[in-house]
Amino acid sequence: MEDKYVELAVNKTLELLAIDSPTGYCKKAISYLKDEFEKIGFETKITNKGGLLVDFGGQDDGNGLLFETHVDTLGAMVSEIKSNGRLKITNLGGMNANNAEGENVRIITRDGKIYEGTAQLVNASIHVNGQYNDTKRNWDNVEVVIDELVKNKQDVKDLSIEVGDIVCFEPRSRVSSSGYIKSRFLDDKLSVGMLVALAHYLADKHIKLSRKVYGHVTVFEEVGHGGSGSVPEGVSEAISIDMGCVGEGLNCSETEVSICAKDSGGPYSYDVVSKLIEAAKKENAKYCVDVYPHYGSDVEATVAAGADVAFGLIGSGVYASHGYERSHKEGVKNTLKLIKGYLNI
Known about the structure:
By secondary structure, this protein is α+β, with helices and mostly antiparallel strands. 27% of the residues lie in helices and 29% in strands. It starts with a helix and ends with a helix.
């Protein structure tokens, strides 16, 4: 897998990261991806749920393969407009108040207006608040301060901000000269970027796949039901391309591709994991096999919904998951090499 496809994956990831898409608000990101895949030459379909199915072609013999990624991210929603003009918010997915504090946000109204603000601890001035260091950060005491001249609830409503409006957190994306990719929401936009790069690779090389292959970009993974439907007929195997966990007690680093043998939902298909390991070895991809202690994936939702498929999970190593995340171009390269080996292309 040439380096140009690694660079392409990273660049498409950065473009995606610039499109806000917290769970429940993914229409713009899906529209962007639909155009991307169709420009390359692949047929797509937007599901009723709002996800995107991509047909990569291949021989339809009842042994189809489905790659699952997700474009939805963590975020928040306005749950109350306070009397002082501040916003109480509720998290979308696993957004944690501890690492949301101090982050710039965008509030998107139902009529399309966008306002900036900041997530702050209630009474955030340390020269005023003597309990600043001792206050537990949670969604009862971390609020959004709107960057508008508002002093009360009516001032906020006059801006057309209402309960149920989406709150998007600034991703702060950057790529270091040493190849590190840093941003919120690499989970899972980095994998979606890789799926776009794979599509370019297939088209550029005029590859005819030996089995039917689909992609499903889901939009509700962060709340647990992204992959619970829309499995094309004839699919016998499904693999989530998500983030590989990096942390104490695990083997993976940001420069490797992680193959998950088990997570909080139980073991992945033994044969699929074995074939993924064989594919990594065949392509000389640097890989690790790990057990994730606190994790769930799209493909687990697929299986839980009743799909009779063998299933697996892979991903480029990502550190500081659900926070300010970090991966590396080498992790992207090794993941693409593993996918290439699995497809025998």
